[in-house]
Amino acid sequence: MASLEEQRRIDQQNFRNHLATVNEEGKRNWIYPKKPSGRYYKARNIVALLLLAFFFSGPFITVNGNPLLLINIIERKFVIFGVAFWPQDLHLLLFGMLTFILFVVLFTVVFGRLWCGWACPQTIFMEMVFRRIEYWIEGDAAAQIRLNKQDWNLEKITKKVSKHAIFYAMAFLISNLFLAYIIGKDQLFDIITDPPSEHIAGLSAMIVFSGVFYGVFAFMREQVCHFVCPYGRMQSVMLDNNSINVMYDYVRGETRASVKDRYQLENRKATLEDLGFSANEQFGDCIDCYQCVKVCPMGIDIRNGTQLECVHCTACIDACDSVMDKIDKPRGLIRYSSEDAIREGKQKVLTPRVAGYSGILLILLTTFITLLTLRPDTETTILREPGTLYQELPENRYSNIYNLKMLNKTFKEIPIEIKLEQPAGELVSLGSFTSIAPQNAAEGRFLIQLSDSVLTGQQTELVFGIYSGDKKLETVTSGFLGPANNN
Ligand code: SF4
Ligand code: SF4
């Protein structure tokens, strides 16, 4: 039979053997986190309000007439912070994505999961919207447990029905907004106002999205962070001993002992051994009150060290700070810190790993901004009409026929003029266009007539300038086919 002291140690290691959200029969352990309060919770509320305001107004904000954000996968149109991207800009998008992923990795290496706790939509909607609705209707954790245990009566039916009705309404609203980011607010407005039969696909997407969001926030909850989110799963690769995380200061906190144990010792009602401690045990500041565990929406005990489940929501910091205030000890037994800072008492931010990542990030960012700045407003291809040869004209002149395809990547109409810049020759339009509508493609045909004196062989390179007024938008090259014996 294990001694009290051994039992205490076994209990403290037991967290490694099971998931906090799974019970011994392998069923879901529903988490009832106590409502948090404190300075971090207040700050997170303000950040969440700002982010929610941004999210809800995003589809309606325009920059120079363009939507702020549009991720239209169906029509392959992307607008990020007012800058339009087209399928032809795939290299830019991939580059931007690579830069963003590296930024996330670097940020995580230094600041841990700050994103998860403060800015992730899953945490913000779950903790700041759905959980608050739940507290408002069903009460704090203890009241929720009581309600779930009690028989179905009018109170339980009213609370459960109203909670799930509001949850579904919120999920419906969120899914509409997501759809607005995908198809744009105008198309969304059409789906809402037109007869349902005209937008079967759009309405089906709305219903599916609403169901998914409702399922995530009403039932899946922390399971999304544990099992679905790839960022959460990658934490162990990204974090090191200098990463800043929500940490329990075990140097200061251990050995933990409850207020009751301390009282018994102080009043000589029990010895250290009686209470399961070793003879020379020194007590730390943790009074083993479990307040940090009770508020945790992931159901974990942060005193066991950094864990994959922890989303750095800071609820345990607030809970422990209020305990420290009550027992007259300094705040910060649980705080933002790093493994090394707690063990050695000093925080290193600029490690070789951080410096290396920062250098690569700087190179990627500079390249991305340069590519973005140099990107032309139009994308033009000029190709000789397939299957045609040159045509001989009087006075030793030859002509080729060309197809022109042009894409306007901007949100404004662009007047267009095409000039043959090299070699000297004549461009004869065959019903080409003079302007391109916003976000549109246009096609046209023209002839190029060259004198044999400018031909450099069977193939002569042509250089075209694409102009809008006096502004040159692009330089495009193509080939001119002449007679084989021409040198
Ligand atoms: S351990 Fe603390 S910071 Fe981590 S999820 Fe739980 S309450 Fe939030
Ligand atoms: S809230 Fe603070 S004092 Fe209480 S158990 Fe957690 S770490 Fe210990």
Could you outline the blueprint of secondary structure elements for this entry?
Elements: H1 4-13, H2 39-57, E1 62-63, E2 66-67, E3 69-72, E4 77-80, E5 83-85, H3 90-111, H4 114-118, H5 121-138, H6 141-149, H7 154-183, H8 185-193, H9 200-220, H10 222-228, H11 230-233, H12 235-238, E6 245-248, H13 250-253, H14 259-266, H15 291-294, H16 315-326, E7 334-337, H17 339-344, H18 352-374, E8 378-384, E9 391-393, E10 397-408, E11 414-415, E12 417-422, E13 426-429, E14 435-436, E15 441-451, E16 459-468, E17 471-481
Antiparallel strand pairs: 1-2, 3-4, 4-5, 6-7, 8-10, 9-10, 10-15, 11-14, 12-16, 13-15, 16-17
Helix pairs in contact: 3-18, 5-7, 7-8, 7-9
What does this structure look like?
By secondary structure, the chain is α+β, with helices and mostly antiparallel strands. Among the domains are: 31-238, no CATH class; 378-481, Immunoglobulins (Immunoglobulin-like), CATH 2.60.40.10. It is 44% helix and 19% strand. The protein contains 18 helices and 17 strands. It has helices at residues 4-13, 39-57, 90-111, 114-118, 121-138, 141-149, 154-183, 185-193, 200-220, 222-228, 230-233, 235-238, 250-253, 259-266, 291-294, 315-326, 339-344, 352-374; strands at 62-63, 66-67, 69-72, 77-80, 83-85, 245-248, 334-337, 378-384, 391-393, 397-408, 414-415, 417-422, 426-429, 435-436, 441-451, 459-468, 471-481. Strands 8, 9, 10, 13 and 15 form a five-stranded antiparallel sheet that branches. The protein has a three-stranded antiparallel sheet with strand order 3-4-5. Strand 1 (62-63) and strand 2 form a beta hairpin. Helix 3 packs antiparallel against helix 18 (352-374) and helix 5 packs antiparallel against helix 7 (154-183). The chain is elongated, with a radius of gyration of 33 Å. It starts with a helix and ends in a 6-residue tail after the last strand. The mean pLDDT is 87. It binds iron/sulfur cluster (2 copies).
